[in-house]
Amino acid sequence: MSLIEARALSRVYDLDSGRVTALDRVSLDIEAGDLVAVMGPSGSGKSTFMNLIGCLDRPTGGHYRLDGVAVETLGSDGLAELRNRKLGFVFQQFNLLPRVDACANVELPMVYAGADRKTRRQRALAALGRVGLAERAHHRPMQLSGGQQQRVAIARALVNEPRLLLADEPTGALDSRTALEILALFQDLNREGVTVVLVTHDAEVARHARRVIRFRDGRLLSDQRQEAADART
Ligand code: ADP
Ligand code: ADP
C-alpha cells in the first residue's frame, strides 16, 4: 500500500464562463519515504493536485486514498481530522502569526488538537530544536530572517508528527543559498522517514528530489526518478 494512491483523479470547476478542468484523470502513487518535486507551468494543475492530496479540496472524479483511507468516505470533520493527524503544510510566504513568538506559532496545530499547555510547549521546543532554531524560540517572525521564518513554519508543520509534508514553493521567497539550507533540512527530515512533496518552478530545487513529476494542462506529463543532489555539498 502506498502512502498516496490517486486513481483518475479529476477536478473540474464549473464557472459562468464554462468548465475548467484543473486536473484531468491523474493516476499516481507516492510511496512513504519519498521526496517528490512537482513541476509544471503556471495553471498546469499543481496547486489543485496539492489541495486534493492535502485533503483541502475534494475531487470531482476519481479516487484518492491517503495512508489506506478512502478520502471520499469522510465528512468534513473526518477530513479535517485526517489532515491534522497525517499532514503538515508549508507555504511560500511562511504564513506565521506576526504578533506571537516562534514557539507560539509552532504550538498552534496542537491548540486545535487539544493538547495541554505544558505538552504543547515541550513539543514546540523539541520541533524548533529539530529545525535548528532552539535558540530563537522567543523571537517574533519579524526578528528572524526569511530562512529562519521558514524553519519555524516547518517546525509548525512537523509538530503533530505528520507522515507527509506538503510544501507549495517553500523556497520561492528565499535567496538561493538560503533555499539550499531549507532543501538540506527537507532532505534530513526525509532521511528520518518523513515523506515530502514540494511544488517548485525551479529546476535547481527539483534536482534535490528523488522523483520529479511534471504537469501540463491538468495532466501528468512526466514522472522521473533521479539521483537526488545533496543540498549540503
Ligand atoms: P498551478 O498551481 O499549476 O498554477 P492551478 O492548480 O492553480 O495551477 O490551476 C489549474 C487550472 O485550474 C487553471 O486554469 C486555474 O485557473 C484553474 N483553477 C484553479 N483553481 C480554481 C478555482 N478555485 N476556480 C476556478 N478555476 C480554478
Ligand atoms: P500558483 O502560485 O500555484 O500558480 P495560482 O495563482 O494559480 O497559484 O492560484 C492561487 C489560488 O487561487 C489557488 O488556491 C487556486 O485554487 C485559486 N485559483 C486559481 N485560479 C483561479 C480561478 N480562475 N478562479 C478562482 N480561483 C482560482
TrEMBL record:
Residues 4-233 form the ABC transporter domain. The lineage of its organism: Bacteria, Pseudomonadati, Pseudomonadota, Alphaproteobacteria, Hyphomicrobiales. Pfam families: ABC_tran. Keywords: ATP-binding, Nucleotide-binding, Transport. Gene3D superfamilies: P-loop containing nucleotide triphosphate hydrolases. CDD domains: ABC_MJ0796_LolCDE_FtsE. Belongs to the ABC transporter superfamily. This is ABC transporter ATP-binding protein. Signal peptide: none annotated. InterPro entries: AAA+_ATPase, ABC_transporter-like_ATP-bd, ABC_transporter-like_CS, ABC_transpr_LolD-like, MacB-like_ATP-bd, P-loop_NTPase. GO terms for molecular function: ATP binding.
